[in-house]
Amino acid sequence: MAIYHLEAKVVSRGAGRSAVAASAYLSCSRLYNDYDGIQHDYTRKQGLVWQGVFLPEYAPQEWKDREKFWNAVEEVETAKDRRLAREFVVALPIELKREEQIKLLQEFIREQFVSDGMCADAAIHDADGHNPHAHILLTVRPLDEQGKWQYKTEKEYLCMRNGEERGFTAAEFKAAQADGWEKQYPYEVGRKKVYMPPSEAEKHGYERVNKHPKSTKFGRQNPTSERWNSEEQLVLWRKAWADVTNRYLEQYGHDARIDHCSHAERGLTEQPTIHEGVVARALEKKGVVSDRCEMNRQIKADNDLLRELKATVKKLMQRVKNTVPAIAEAMETVRQNVIIFCYQLGYIRTGQKKKREYLSAVKSDIKQYTELLKQIREAGKKRKALLAEKKELPIWSIPRSRELSSRIAGLTELLEELRSEKTIVLQYLQCTDESGVSVLKKDIAAMETELKKLDEQEEKYNSELGAALKQYAELRERAAEHDPVELYEARQAIRSEKEQNVIDRVQRTYREKYNSLAMFDSKREASGLLHEYVDEQVVQKLKREQHRKIQSEHTHPKSEKKRIDFER
Fold first, then answer.
1. Do 86 and 12 form a contact (C-beta atoms < 8 A)?
2. CA angle, 349 as apex, 344 and 355 as ends, to 5°?
3. In sequence order, which residues have a C-beta less than 8 Å from that of residue 15 and are 6 or more positions away?
């Protein structure tokens, strides 16, 4: 089923990541990072389905080569804790074909990111064929119309005029200075340092401490960067992904839909997880209906109906007389029991099918989740050991240090990928964390127990159906000495009443779960098991023969002679 998953992350040097390494990982390629001299090789990584680079029209076309592109990003970001890129991990709907998934992703990237001036590097991964997802790596620094990098933040000077303080960039200050605005510098006032404009300091004869004017702490952010980094923009991107995905699902004839809103935003009061697990009984005591307890109640109701049917048939077989009305009554009573058994077996088999399909899907996801946890633990241990080794290296061991840095970067990217995959699998399982998976495992064990009960129920009803068919066969043997047409008409006379009795009984047992279409199928199945079509054909043939016999007896001899002559 289609699920909504859009995970937003930042690739930052402060977290030990590299934009070149992230690009090499998502594209399963080998890229060299000019910033730290490390070559990142992921050519052995499996699961790459598709990859591509998207650029605005004014970006340098040489950036189609992702190594040149991301090295240009690394070059312009000089600080050791700089944000290098923004990364999205999105789950692709499994209902769509591969080419449809690619078309969906391309449209989303072009409309939401490239059209807004971002450069994008994207790839689709699907290692096992059941978890298609896409990685989208985006630039965080805007480009100007000449294809040059813009500033992300610009120094903002806090200036004074007539007691009013206002911030100006260097370009803005040139015009503001003509209007009387002055920068503020630190002056020594007693033992304190006080910021004030030079004109004010000259009046009191204060001495300036240094040449650095007063400015805002973080500077003024580029308006485009500020918008890209806002929570409001992230909400818009999340909604856009849901909208374009739903449009594609509808376009290609699928009923599934996804929703980017949280439970609270959708007005739902329940928790996201749906698994009750071992607390079913506790919920029942609180007045909450548990599916498992409801199934047990249904089994008890089925058993009560079965006992009632067996008692009715036993009494009927004991007192049946060798007359047409009595045999017709007995055969129709056994027939109605066959219909009920067919309905019960159909109900049980539907439940078995749903549970087996659910268990098959969930077990596969849990197996994948367990394997991901194992890989995350192993990769985390290796990374921790390498970090410790690098920390102990002497300063002159440069080759070994670079080798360790390369391996650490690779493990860092691997951990990011594994954690993203784990989050997607958790959403498939409808769990929020590992505790939810533990509850789900208990729920699976309980469901397997329920499935065994259903198998036992199926075996029991198959046995009862076989016994009913045997009784019907015995009644047919006893009816052989009677006129088939008379017996057929006697049975048809009471059939509608018997069938209505079947419907009433089943409705009382199954209540709101009663299914009229399933009842129709049960009647058809019972008719086949009792060979009613063959019997009806025999009766219709006998009726036609009787009709011709009656006609021949009332036909005038002369007319008969003319008919014979005509036929000759």
1. no
2. 130
3. 412
Q: Which residues of 255-283 are buried (b: 16+ CB within 10 A; e: fewer)?
A: eeebebeeeeeeeeeeeebebbbeebeee
405-to-389, 486, 558 alpha-carbon distances in Å: 11, 95, 117
pLDDT digits (tens, 9 = 90+) for 479-497: 888 888 888 888 889 989 9
In this structure, the strands spanning 120-125 and 133-139 are antiparallel
Q: How far is CA 283 from CA 300, 355, 453, in A?
A: 20, 21, 22
pLDDT at res. 269: 38
Q: How far is it, in rounded angstroms, from Cα 33 to Cα 18?
A: 8
Q: Measured in Å, how far apart are the chain's first and last C-alpha atoms?
A: 73
Residue at token pair 């784990």: 422
User: 324 Cβ partners below 8 Å, 6+ apart?
Assistant: 482, 483, 486, 487, 490
Q: CA 209 → CA 188, 241, 399, distances in Å?
A: 6, 54, 46
Query: Could you tell me which residues come within 8 angstroms of residue 64 by beta carbon, excluding any fewer than 6 positions away?
Result: 53, 55
For residue 68, which of 31, 43, 123, 16 has the smallest C-alpha distance? 31
Rounded Cα distance between 20 and 72, Å, is: 10
Contacts within 8 Å (CB) and 24+ apart, 318-325: 320/475, 322/478, 324/482, 324/483, 324/486, 324/487, 324/490, 325/490
For residue 33, what pLDDT is reported? Answer: 93
Q: Parallel, antiparallel, or unpaired for β 157-161 and 164-168?
A: antiparallel
Phi first, then psi: give them for residue 251, nearest 5 degrees: -60, -35
**What element of type H or E holds 461?**
helix 434-479
Report the distance separating Cα 443 and Cα 435, nearest Å: 12
Burial of 485 (0-12, 13-18, 19+ CB in 10 A): middle
For residue 310, give the nearest of 332, 347, 337 by alpha carbon.
Answer: 337
Rounded to 10°, the helix 516-529/532-553 angle is: 70
**DSSP secondary structure code for residue 17 in this structure:** -
DSSP 281-340: HHHHHTTPPPHHHHHHHHHHHHHHHHHHHHHHHHHHHHH--SSHHHHHHHHHHHHHHHHH
Element (H, E) at 52: strand 48-54
Burial class of residue 542 (count of CB atoms within 10 Å of its CB; 0-12, 13-18, 19+)? middle
What local confidence, expressed as pLDDT, does residue 18 receive? Answer: 92
Residue of 552, 362, 504 lying closest to 444 (CA atoms): 362
Question: What is the Cα–Cα distance from 96 to 100, expressed in whole angstroms?
Answer: 6
User: In terms of DSSP H, where are the helices of 322-433?
Assistant: 324-392, 398-428
For the chain of 568 residues, list the mean pLDDT of each consecutive stretch of 10.
88 91 94 91 92 94 95 91 93 93 96 95 89 94 92 90 92 91 93 91 90 90 90 94 95 90 56 40 49 60 65 56 81 90 89 86 86 91 90 86 88 88 85 82 84 86 88 86 86 90 88 88 91 84 82 62 56
Other C-beta atoms closer than 10 Å to the C-beta of 109 total: 21
Tally Cβ neighbours within 10 Å of residue 237: 17
Q: What is the pTM of this model?
A: 0.60
